[in-house]
Amino acid sequence: LFESVELAPRDPILGLNEQYNADTRPNKVNLGVGVYSDDEGRIPLLDCVRQAEEARVAAHAARGYLPIDGIPGYNSGAQKLLLGENSPLVGSGRVLTAQSLGGTGALKIGADFLRRLLPGSKVVISDPSWANHRALFAEAGFTVETYPYYDAATHGFNFEGMLAALRALPEKTIVVLHACCHNPTGVDPSAEQWAQIADTVRDRNLVPFLDIAYQGFGDGLEEDASVVRLFAQRDLTMLISSSFSKSFSLYGERVGALTMVCSSKEESARVLSQLKVVIRTNYSNPPTHGGMVVSSVLNTPELFALWKQELAGMRDRIRSMRTQLVDKLKEHGVSQDFSFVKSQRGMFSYSGLTADQVERLREEHGIYAVGSGRICVAALNSGNIDYVAKAVASVIG
Ligand code: LMR
């Protein structure tokens, strides 16, 4: 039966974890996957999460099946974070949300839903984009192309290139946009540029699919949602995949959400009914624990305030690692200007390291980065930053 099955290549991001775990060098560093570690190199258990978990365990809560679309309080909490506490759009009943298996799960159920609705449409993603975007939409049956995004020469954003590409797309093309903290580059458009992007999406009748997996890691929860709100203000129907994996440090709990903004309340009921078919035929309904924890933090004012504080702590630590990395590289004799790392946002830096340099970092120093040169700044800490900077200096030569 399985004779003809070929060996698939390792996943470009999660495959690195497998290699990293098998590496026996004591000073190894994992700058591959997008996971935040604290200054001791541990994935933190947030205090708000610990409190919500303790209360849940103490309550001996039953674990029956959840509704197909998940926990109502979780979904309404996700909507408020995206569209604002008192969003008239949410009030109008035009917005629906389904708890999903992480941000990836949200993208996948969204992709499956869209594939049925728009079989003739293609998907465009940024160049570069998160490696799984292309793979996921292609697996869902779409042709996937790219629009210009990153300008390697300036380490900045190619605004004109992106806008021109969007203008040339056929109507109903699905445009995947990173609403904040672009993965992998860390380079985001300005507010004015976003306004023009949103206008173009509306004028060209494109289908926006906003991916927001790092809300809170840029400037703050509200600030990072501004792009979602800018699209909402233009009355665009859209899909939004969001994730609590990083912001709650609950990676393995697969806590994401797919939100869709529809034209009317009645339309939203129809859309939700079809989305539920997609979910039911994939995994039936989402798991309880992580979703219940997130829901309780989002809906308990003291825990919510604590979460915001803890999230700010993570954001600030990443910023300080950016500055320190730039300084340390200089200290170790790197003459190349790396100051761009400081203005990048979120967990990642597109470092400009070549595939060869990334390979040397891994082989010679046990430092793991994505082949594209993406490094996870959130995995640097005071114990490894000097080692990393020295190693980078040595491979740059
Ligand atoms: C990443 O880009 O490293 C994260 O989003 C984790 C993943 O699933 O790839």
TrEMBL record:
Source species, domain of life: Bacteria
Gene Ontology molecular functions: identical protein binding; L-tyrosine-2-oxoglutarate transaminase activity; pyridoxal phosphate binding
Record Gene3D superfamilies: Aspartate Aminotransferase, domain 1 (3.90.1150.10), Type I PLP-dependent aspartate aminotransferase-like (Major domain) (3.40.640.10)
Alphabetized InterPro entries for the sequence: Aminotransferase_I/II_large, Asp_trans, NHTrfase_class1_PyrdxlP-BS, PyrdxlP-dep_Trfase, PyrdxlP-dep_Trfase_major, PyrdxlP-dep_Trfase_small
GO cellular component: cytosol
E.C. code: 2.6.1.-
Domain Aminotransferase class I/classII large: 27-391
Keyword Endoplasmic reticulum carried by entry: no
Subunit details: Homodimer.
UniProt record similarity statement: Belongs to the class-I pyridoxal-phosphate-dependent aminotransferase family.
Protein name (database record): Aminotransferase
